[in-house]
Amino acid sequence: MDNYKITIDDVSKTVFASTCLHLAGSILTGMRRKEGDAKDNRDLLSDDEKIILKSYKVLSSIYDTLSRIDMSCAFMKQSCGKHILDRLQINIIDYSLYHYEMFCYKVSTLRDLYFKLINILYDLKIPNQYCKWNRISEKREKINNEFLFSLLEDNRNYLKIINVRRNGTAHDGKTEHGAFDEISPYVTFTMYADKMPGLDDCMNINRNYYLQYRLKESRKNFQKEVEICRYNAFIYARCILCSLSDRFFEILSNETKSKYKDSLEKALLSSMEGMVCENLKYPHNCMNARIKNGEF
User: Fold this and answer.
1) Is the confidence at residue 295, as pLDDT, over 70?
2) Would you place residue 291 in the very low, low, confident or very high pLDDT band (cuts 50, 70, 90)?
3) pLDDT per residue as tens digits for the range 16-39
4) d(CA 224, CA 161)
5) Tell me: the pLDDT tens digits for 184-241?
6) Is 292 helix (H, G, I), strand (E, B) or coil?
7) Quick one: pLDDT at residue 225?
8) In sequence order, which residues have a C-beta less than 8 Å from that of residue 12 and are 6 or more positions away?
9) What angle do helix axes 207-243 and 15-31 make, rounded to 10 degrees?
10) Looking at 60-74, 118-132, 189-203, 282-296, which range is the least confident one?
């Protein structure tokens, strides 16, 4: 699946992300209390430094969420072993969908984190619990970043089905995926048949051959679609962070830029190694990537 290859490291090498990380590191180092002091010097931070640390906190949550998405994908690709699943009476479809639930939740979480970051950088003063799409879109004129909104809207459309899956899990208590619709009843029946002698006779097919073939194809389709969705989530994360770079530099005072000159230079050198949006007018051309669409 090399066409869908993008890593957390790729996401971190945007100008905004690299700069925020380097500046936060310098600030946190300066805050470190001296031996014998009862507390750090947090109360001496400037407004710029406070904004940087707030942004860093959200950025860290974005990285953590991307990491959890990767963990979910890894579990969906590689089960813990058939003998273990059999002992626990868990079939491979239920195992896959269990981790798919986490995948859906974390992909959906990314949007909420983008809104929080936008709220901080544009000083929208929206309370966290109300920091949703409707409130952000109301501030469109103040934000004045059409590239950012085009990304948010595209991201919403491409990953809409994930929100549907997440809501289904939360409200109906069950996660489903079209790739398993045909094979799932047979897999479930097989689990019962293994426990109840004679039930095998009810299935007038070569069960083992049929299940192995269909299950292999179903899992292949399932994993391909998950990988496409993961790619979309990561590439949008990268582009959205990139679209915030100009704003981040705008809000930094000359005093802050002078104070952290060395950190800024290191950040820019680091980000140049993995520049994303060379032409912000064409978001889908980031790293020569084509946003992949699929039915999940």
Assistant:
1) no
2) very low
3) 999 999 999 999 888 765 555 556
4) 15
5) 555 555 655 555 555 455 554 445 666 777 777 888 888 888 898 899 999 999 999 9
6) coil
7) 86
8) 18, 21, 63, 274
9) 70
10) 282-296
Q: Are 215 and 186 in contact (CB under 8 A)?
A: no
d(CA 12, CA 67): 12
Give the pair of three-digit tokens for residue 133: 């799409």
- pLDDT at 14 > cutoff 70: yes
HEC sequence for the chain: CHHHCCCHHHHHCCHHHHHHHHHHHHHHHHHCCCCCCCCCCHHHCCHHHHHHHHHHHHHHHHHHHHHHHHHHHHHHHCCCCHHHHHHCCCCHHHHHHHHHHHHHHHHHHHHHHHHHHHHHHCCCCCCHHHCCHHHHHHCHHHHCCHHHHHHHHHHHHHCHHHHHHHHHHHHHCCCCCHHHCCCHHHHHHHHHHHHCCCHHHHCCCCHHHHHHHHHHHHHHHHHHHHHHHHHHHHHHHHHHHHHCHHHHHHCCCHHHHHHCHHHHHHHHHHHHCCCCCCCCCCHHHHHHCCCCCCCC
DSSP structural state of residue 252: S
Residues 233-279 pLDDT 10s: 999 999 999 999 999 999 999 999 999 999 988 888 776 544 444 43
Tokens representing 212 are 């192995």
**If you write DSSP's letter for every residue of 23-37 in order, what string do you get?**
HHHHHHHHHPPPTT-
The span from the first CA to the last CA of the chain, in angstroms, equals 17
Size of the chain in residues: 296
Burial class (CB in 10 A: 0-12, 13-18, 19+), 254: exposed
